[in-house]
Amino acid sequence: MSSAQSLSSTHPTFPPDPEFAATANGTAQLYDAAAADYEGFWADQARSRITWDTDFESTLDWSEAPFAQWFVGGQLNAAYNCVDRHVAAGHGDRVAIHFEGEPGDTRTITYADLLSEVSRAANALEALGIRKGDTVAIYLPMIPEAAIAMLACARIGAPHSVVFGGFSAEALNTRINDAACKLVITADGGYRRGAPSALKPAVDAALDHAETTVDKVLVVQRTRQETPWFPERDLWWHDALAAASDTHAAPAHDSEHPLFILYTSGTTGKPKGIFHTTGGYLTQAAYTNAVVHDVHPESDVYWCTADIGWVTGHSYIVYGPLANGATQVMYEGTPDSPHQGRWWEIIQKYGVSILYTAPTAVRTFMKWGSEIPAGFDLSSLRLLGSVGEPINPEAWLWYRKYIGGDRCPIVDTWWQTETGAIMISPLPGVTTLEPGSAQRPIPGISAEILDDEGVPFTEPEKVGYLVLTKPWPAMLRGIWGDPQRYRDTYWSRFGEKYYFAGDGAKYDADGNIWLLGRVDDVMNVSGHRLSTAEIESALVSHPKVAEAAVVGASDEMTGQAVVAFVILREEHVEEADEVGEGTDLVKELRDHVAKEIGPIAKPRTIMIVAELPKTRSGKIMRRLLKDVAEGREVGDVTTLADSSVMSSIKLGLDG
Ligand code: PRX
């Protein structure tokens, strides 16, 4: 089944394959249905995909805009929807998770197993005094307990706050405090590049501050490495679960009960606790996983390679696929452990049919060479997905040819932590695919592109700002504890009518939307969101640093890379004489950022400079620094307070 290929202006496009279309969950009628009756469309999705303890009375309450309520009056349990109902429907023996540990250990978890594990964990949490409304931090490697812990929290109505295992103790501390978590669920460690890597010491350090709201730490034993232990506070997960019953009645929660908090970088130094509620989020996660990933639970083996610490892992490892009763692969480690064909080996081993990953991974595989995937049988694949950053047409075409065997549709899915679920994407089996473009809002979602004045336009190739024009079920309900910041960040740039996504976008001549990256001070490095302000504040917290400016410079492999310009304190300027990559000082600063935030935030390049370019009002002109970082001719300097600064920076670097 090879699809015909036609040429658009610059790239080939790919019309849907009739054989794929014949069984696709997505249909052209969905667009019509959503356009004809927007609320009715979402009400149908909610009622057909989700099991409600109490049906909702109204679909949407937008009277307190921008604070939405979806499926008002409805009651449900997210864990029941992801687990119990599949067992009740006779699918208890279906595999929910094929777990593949990095060292090669495996576990097969059926829906019946998942039900007993989640029930035990829910009972254990209750025995530890966790009640509905208490917040729980989860800091775990990619092991099944991460999903089990999330579902156990959801079951009892305790919002979880998952913190990516790569974040530092400092970052964990800030997040635990902001959400006033009562419990932390962690592990002794995880496996990374062939070796155990400790996790628990970071929790100990995070809690080693005077004030903490945390009473207990529940520790999963994964690596069996030596682990510091505080008997009053620490408990083994396996002991707590062994002591708990494997049945637990799932209580009904309000549709708007908070399901989770997930911190993400914004334009200021302080990460934002994005929070999502139950009914709307689950509806859209299940719907998109069905119509965009085209999951058929009875026959597919689905694999989303994201970490559970990011929103992609929340929506497309835990809530979407499990709500749909899918079988999925979960892999703990890195793509090159122990060899560069590990992913392809996993696809061959489990017969993976749907693969959802990030462009940065695709570009890495391109660099490693197409002969590596060619050594494995990838014929089980029937759909590929991309998320997290723009996928350049070259990477798209490579992905299609070398991984998708020239037959799999690719869905380039645009969304955000804030949107909760996929918003802009082709529908496989319906859309003619345009490499490099996320194309158009999915049925039920409305977007526009605005110019500087906030006026929508459809003119091709003109660059503007992406906005969402209608509330959607999985939308964030706010920033935890900071409603004003929610209004200011998302609903003020173009007034209260438009959700400002922070992304630049354009249309092509066919009306496809192309996402062009962030327009604010947020960087996207390997699909990870980082804030320039957060890294700057990490740098200036180092005793040798007087001032710092950070920019995201384009990078072939990681999309963007962190480049920092640093002014040293007077007494350390001499150390800068031997500046350059790899010097002790630069290494010290990079390590400091890793300690403050996490290794993902380490600057690729640190340039020690004498001055920074500033406007007369004292604002750092990052645009000019970006020119330097990307090796371009420096742009307009007329608004600088001192226009000679740029030449001295360039001179310092060149010399
Ligand atoms: O800039 C967009 C980019 O990632 C941002 C959202 O990051 P985060 O909240 O961490 O969520 C990532 C996973 C959903 C967006 O504002 N982005 C995400 N997907 C795409 C994308 N940019 C272009 N194309 C995409 N498909």
Show the helix and strand layout.
Elements: E1 6-7, E2 12-13, H1 18-23, H2 28-36, H3 38-49, E3 58-61, E4 69-72, E5 75-76, H4 78-91, E6 95-100, E7 106-110, H5 111-127, E8 136-139, H6 144-156, E9 160-162, H7 169-178, E10 183-187, E11 189-192, E12 195-198, H8 200-207, E13 216-220, E14 234-236, H9 237-242, E15 253-254, E16 258-264, E17 272-277, H10 279-291, E18 301-304, H11 311-323, E19 327-331, H12 342-350, E20 354-357, H13 359-368, H14 371-374, E21 383-387, H15 393-403, E22 410-413, E23 447-450, E24 464-468, E25 478-479, H16 483-490, E26 499-507, E27 513-518, E28 522-525, E29 528-531, H17 532-540, E30 545-555, E31 559-568, H18 584-596, E32 605-608, H19 622-629, H20 645-654
Helix pairs in contact: 2-3, 3-10, 4-5, 4-6, 4-11, 5-6, 7-8, 10-11, 13-15
Bound molecules: adenosine-5'-monophosphate-propyl ester.
Strand line-up in the sheet with most strands: 14-13-10-8-9-16-17-25
- How big a fraction of the residues is strand? 15-25%
Helix content class: 25-40%
Overall number of strands: 32
End-to-end C-alpha gap: 58 Å
Q: Rg to the nearest angstrom?
A: 24 Å
Instruction: Say which molecules are bound, naming each kind only once.
Output: adenosine-5'-monophosphate-propyl ester
Per DSSP, the total helix count is 20
Largest sheet, strands/sense/barrel = 8 strands, mixed
Question: Kindly state the mean pLDDT as a whole number?
Answer: 93
| Uncertain runs | 1-9
Query: What's the shape?
Result: globular
Structural class: alpha/beta
